C-alpha cells in the first residue's frame, strides 16, 4: 500500500478539502460574487477578494497540462514508487491541481501533455486521508 | 527616477573563492567578503551606512547581522525573495541612495550548502504544514521536477528540443573552464570529468527529473560574497571605475488556474528595467541569467526580450552565446550556477560577474563590454518565483 506523506492539521484552508477526500469527493471553490474558480482552497476569492465562496465537487476529469518523471527523491516516502510522474492536471471545471499520473506501464514514455485523465483515490498506509491521483482515460 | 541616471554604482565586490569550505561559517564568509569588497572599493568599514540582507547565514538577518559585523547602519533592508534577493536589494539600494537615506550600501551572502550536504534539489517534502504544503507534499514534487515541468510544457508548446536546452550547459561549461575558481569548484565537488562538454555529454548524463539531465542542473556548493553600492559622490573617489545601475524591475509569478507555465516573472520585470534604462535588449553585451537549470535560462532569454517566445533554441545554437563569438551577447561568462557557483541563492554572483565584465576583469572577457543585464530568479520556476532584473552600464 502506498505510504505518501499525509496532510498535517490543523490547517484552516485545506482541512475541508481533505475531509471531502475521505468521501472520495474532489472539491474546488467558486466565488459567489465574481464566479471565479479558486484552487488551491482558500477563504477568499483570489480574483476579487470576496469572502463568499461556494464549495463544489468536481467530476474528476481533465487533462495533463505538464508533467515530469521524478527519478531521484531523498524522501523515503517515495522510495517504493520507482520513477513516478508528477503532473499539473487541468480539471474540466477550470482549476489546476498538482498530482501524480498513475497506472501507466512506463511513466517516461506513457505520459504526455494534453492527455485525458480521471481521478482515483489511493488508500494510504500512512494515514486516514486517501490521496487523489489521476489515471489516463 | 530619471532615465539613464548616474545616481548609484557598484563600486566594490568580492566572491568567496572556495566552493567547499568546511572550516568557515556562513557568517564568517559574509563578514570577510564585506571586508574584501570594501577594500576593492577603497572604502572603510565605518563608511557602511546601508545593510541589505536576505536572512541567510545562521544568526544573521535584520537583527543579527549588524551586531555581528559591528556596524550601525541607517538603512536595514531584509528583502528575502530567494535567489533574486540581490537584484531586488540592488534596486532598493539605488532608491535609498537616491533619496539620501544612505551612501554606502552593502549586500552580502554566505552559505554552507555543500559541506552541510543540504539536499536542495531533491529533498522532497518537509514536515511543515501550510496552505500549499498540504496540497503538495503527498505527490513527491521536487525542486528539480518543478523546473522540469516547465521544460516539458515548453517542448510541447513550442517544439523546443533536449539538444537546444543542452546547448546552454555546453556554453556555460566552456566559460567555466576559463575561470580558475570554477575549475577548482568542479574538482572540489567531485564532478566526473572537469572539461568542456558536448551536447551528447549532457544528454547522456543521468536523468534527474525528465526531461532534465544531471548536467542541466546546477551544482550545490558552499560560497558567498559581497557587493558595495555607493552614491555618485562616493563613486567619484573609489579605487575601481564605477559600474552604474541604470534600470531595475521586480515581479512575481506563481502557479495559477489556466496560467502559462512557460512564461516567468522576467516577462514583467524586464520591460520595466529596460524602459527605465532606455536601452534595448539587442544593445546588451552581457547576460547574466540565473542558471539553476538550463530551462531557467531558456525561458528567461525569451522573457527578457532577447528573442521571441519559444525561440531560444535558435538564439543559443552553435555556441552563439560564447564570450568569443562577436555579434551576439555573451551568457553567464563565469561558468554560472551550472559550472561555477551555486550555494542556493545565486543572484549575487550575477551582479559580481556583470561588474567584472564592465570593468574588464572577467576570465572570459568580452572586449569593450558596455551594457549588462543581471536577472535573478528566486523560488521555483513553474511554481512560485520572484524575478529581479538589473541593467548595468560601464562608466
Question: How would you summarize what this structure contains?
Answer:
The complex is a heterodimer of chains A (137) and B (395). Chain A is mainly beta and 137 residues long.
The helix/strand class of chain A is mainly beta
Strand order of the largest sheet of chain B: 3-2-4-7-1-8-12-11-9-10
Global shape of chain A: globular
What do we call the CATH homologous superfamily of chain B? Thiolase/Chalcone synthase
From the 3D coordinates, which CATH architecture of chain B would you assign?
A: 3-Layer(aba) Sandwich
- Largest pleated sheet of chain B: 10 strands, mixed
List unreliable stretches of 5+ residues of chain A. none
Assign an overall shape of chain B: globular
The percentage of residues in β strands of chain B lies in 15-25%
CATH topology tier name of chain B = Peroxisomal Thiolase, Chain A, domain 1
Query: What is the β-strand count of chain B?
Result: 12
Features:
heterodimer; A: 137 residues; mainly beta; 5-stranded antiparallel sheet; 3-stranded antiparallel sheet; 36% strand; B: 395 residues; alpha/beta; Peroxisomal Thiolase, Chain A, domain 1; 10-stranded mixed sheet; two-stranded antiparallel ribbon; 14 helices
Description of the structure:
- The complex is a heterodimer of chains A (137) and B (395).
- Chain A has a five-stranded antiparallel beta sheet with strand order 6-5-4-7-8, with no helix packed on it. Chain A has a three-stranded antiparallel beta sheet with strand order 2-1-3.
- Chain A is globular.
- Chain A is mainly beta and 137 residues long.
- The longest helix of chain A is centred in the first third of the chain and has 7 residues.
- Chain A is built from two helices and eight strands.
- Chain B has 395 residues and is an alpha/beta fold.
- In chain B, the strands form two sheets. Chain B has a ten-stranded mixed beta sheet, with helices on both faces. Chain B has a two-stranded antiparallel sheet with strand order 5-6.
- In chain B, a hairpin with a 2-residue loop joins β5 and β6.
- In chain B, 60% of the residues are buried.
- The chains are: A mainly beta (137), B alpha/beta (395).
Amino acid at each position: 500500500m502506498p505510504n505518501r506523506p499525509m496532510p498535517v492539521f490543523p490547517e484552516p484552508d485545506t482541512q475541508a478539502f481533505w475531509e471531502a477526500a475521505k468521501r472520495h469527493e474532489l472539491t474546488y471553490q467558486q466565488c459567489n460574487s465574481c464566479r471565479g474558480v479558486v484552487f488551491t482552497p482558500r477563504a477568499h476569492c483570489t480574483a476579487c477578494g470576496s469572502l463568499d465562496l461556494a464549495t463544489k465537487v468536481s467530476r474528476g476529469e481533465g487533462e495533463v497540462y505538464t508533467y515530469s518523471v521524478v527519478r531521484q527523491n531523498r524522501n523515503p516516502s517515495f522510495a517504493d514508487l520507482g520513477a513516478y510522474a508528477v503532473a499539473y492536471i487541468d480539471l474540466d471545471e477550470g482549476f489546476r491541481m498538482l498530482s501524480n499520473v498513475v497506472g501507466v506501464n512506463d511513466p517516461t514514455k506513457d505520459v504526455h501533455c494534453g492527455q485525458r485523465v480521471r481521478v482515483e483515490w489511493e488508500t494510504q498506509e500512512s494515514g486516514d486521508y486517501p490521496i487523489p491521483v489521476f489515471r489516463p482515460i | 527616477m530619471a532615465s539613464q541616471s548616474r545616481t548609484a554604482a557598484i563600486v566594490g565586490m568580492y566572491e568567496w573563492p572556495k566552493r567547499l569550505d568546511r572550516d568557515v561559517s556562513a557568517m564568517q564568509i559574509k563578514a570577510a567578503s564585506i571586508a574584501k569588497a570594501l577594500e576593492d572599493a577603497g572604502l572603510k568599514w565605518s563608511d557602511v551606512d546601508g545593510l541589505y540582507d536576505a536572512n541567510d547565514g545562521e544568526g544573521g538577518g535584520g537583527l543579527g547581522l549588524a551586531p555581528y559585523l559591528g556596524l550601525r547602519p541607517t538603512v536595514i533592508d531584509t528583502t528575502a525573495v530567494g535567489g533574486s534577493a540581490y537584484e531586488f536589494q540592488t534596486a532598493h539600494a539605488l532608491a535609498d541612495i537616491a533619496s539620501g537615506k544612505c551612501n554606502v550600501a552593502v549586500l552580502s551572502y554566505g552559505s554552507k550548502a555543500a559541506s552541510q550536504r543540504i539536499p536542495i534539489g531533491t529533498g522532497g517534502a518537509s514536515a511543515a504544514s501550510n496552505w500549499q504544503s498540504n496540497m503538495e507534499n503527498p505527490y513527491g514534487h521536487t525542486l528539480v521536477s518543478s523546473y522540469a515541468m516547465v521544460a516539458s510544457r515548453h517542448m510541447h508548446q513550442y517544439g523546443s528540443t533536449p539538444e537546444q536546452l543542452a546547448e546552454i550547459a555546453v556554453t556555460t561549461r566552456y566559460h567555466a573552464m576559463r575561470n580558475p575558481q570554477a575549475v577548482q569548484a568542479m574538482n572540489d565537488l567531485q564532478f566526473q570529468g572537469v572539461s568542456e562538454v558536448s551536447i551528447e555529454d549532457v544528454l547522456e548524463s543521468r536523468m534527474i527529473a525528465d526531461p532534465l539531465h544531471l548536467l542541466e542542473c546546477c551544482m550545490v556548493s558552499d560560497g558567498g560574497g559581497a557587493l558595495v553600492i555607493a552614491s555618485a559622490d562616493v563613486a567619484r573617489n573609489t579605487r575601481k571605475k564605477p559600474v552604474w545601475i541604470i534600470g531595475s524591475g521586480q515581479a512575481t509569478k506563481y502557479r495559477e488556474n489556466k496560467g502559462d507555465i512557460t512564461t516567468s516573472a522576467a516577462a514583467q520585470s524586464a520591460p520595466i528595467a529596460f524602459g527605465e534604462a532606455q536601452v534595448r535588449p539587442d544593445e546588451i553585451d552581457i547576460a547574466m541569467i540565473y542558471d539553476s537549470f538550463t530551462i531557467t535560462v531558456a525561458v528567461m532569454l525569451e522573457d527578457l526580450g532577447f528573442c521571441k517566445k519559444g525561440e531560444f533554441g535558435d538564439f543559443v545554437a552553435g555556441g552563439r552565446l560564447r564570450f568569443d563569438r562577436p555579434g551576439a551577447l555573451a551568457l553567464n561568462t563565469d561558468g554560472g550556477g551550472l559550472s561555477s557557483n551555486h550555494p542556493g541563492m545565486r543572484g549575487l554572483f550575477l551582479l559580481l560577474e556583470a561588474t567584472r565584465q564592465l570593468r574588464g576583469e572577467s576570465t572570459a572577457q568580452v572586449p569593450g563590454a558596455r551594457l549588462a543585464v543581471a536577472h535573478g530568479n528566486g523560488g521555483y520556476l513553474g511554481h512560485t518565483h520572484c524575478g529581479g532584473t538589473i541593467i548595468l552600464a560601464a562608466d
